[in-house]
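Hi Q.,

Before the meeting this afternoon, I wanted you to have the pyridoxal-5'-phosphate prediction in hand. No need to reply - just skim if you have a minute. The sequence and ligand are here:
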Amino acid sequence: MTDFIYLDNAATTFMDYDVLKAMEPYYLEKYSNPSSIYSFSRENKSAMKRTRDVAAKLLGAKPKDIYFTSGGSEAINWAIKGVVYGNEGKGRHLVSTRIEHHATLHALEFLEKQGYEVTYLDVDETGQIDLSELSRAIRPDTVLVSIMAANNEIGTILPLKEIGRICREMGAFFHTDAVQAVGAVEIDVEEMNIDFLSASAHKFHGPKGVGFLYLRSGIVIENLIHGGNQERGRRSGTENVAGIVGMGKALEILMAEKEEKNGRLTSLRNQLTKGLLQIEGSRLNGPKGVDRLPNNVNISFSGVDGEALLMNLDLAGILASSGSACTSGAIDESHVLQAIGVEKEYIRGSLRFTLSKYNMEDEVEKTIETVKEVVMRQRKIGR
Ligand code: PLP
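Predicted structure with the ligand bound:
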């Protein structure tokens, strides 16, 4: 397929060929605006309905509670801002965690500048929150609790069912950023008392620039995007029909494959973790048990610079990501690795590998060998 080894699937995934095939007619033939009244457009509407149905089925939700967006960031921003603006009478306090994606953290910072108050829950060395701390943090004026379903850097899977129960009992709405969790973690919005859930197609072999927000009916939420009243008046803008169709196809494939895929990923991940941990001065960041995404390996090497490692891996045809980057002359360290207490030196030498169903055992072996060589070489240069 490609002449490089792609191990950055938390950043984005390869789009399935069947997804592309499903999308093609909606660019080349059935390209009308779905709001037009000719039969052509009715077909577009029913194609979008199929995606709504499959997304709802995956989450145990009602199809009418699925709203299409331009991806995860929009869904998250809509849930967070929309809920607080729509429920001003309830209060101006929110609860979240220190390990959320920037889509959440920056939306919360935006609200803080407007006088909202946010309590950020600390996490332990595996990225887990303390549920009793969550209970203590929720107040009568807490409008929303926003806690991710799974972390994109260290793969921690958060206990959605317990979080949902606490939020429901204490009268706060619950939003979860499930961008990394869809297909990897079983989610049932009813059983888990989830009121809002954000997802993004490009993380599960669908197209970029399309996602959805699950929005429990009956809850008042302000619109984020105003205009032509598409999506039943909740999210304006001409629908990305081909993207939505592609997301539906990707979800269908995911539902058919998820058990087998997660089993395979777990064994590849264990192979990669074991191999990398044999390198002297290495350390796994994040959870070690079943509360870790099946495709995530986040590992640090002492005495090396992660960015230099990344560049050397890139030269060897291996694509991954690191927990620190040099931006405009300053070192930008991962807030997630900081939150779980990783020391500076280990943050500097951290790498994240995220697998997909397209990765093979021999790629994992080659990665282990190459990382070993590159780390040794870097250490020699650094001495
Ligand atoms: N939330 C998490 C946990 C993510 O990993 C990402 C993307 O990396 C996002 C949100 C943003 O999603 P999108 O790229 O679709 O805007």
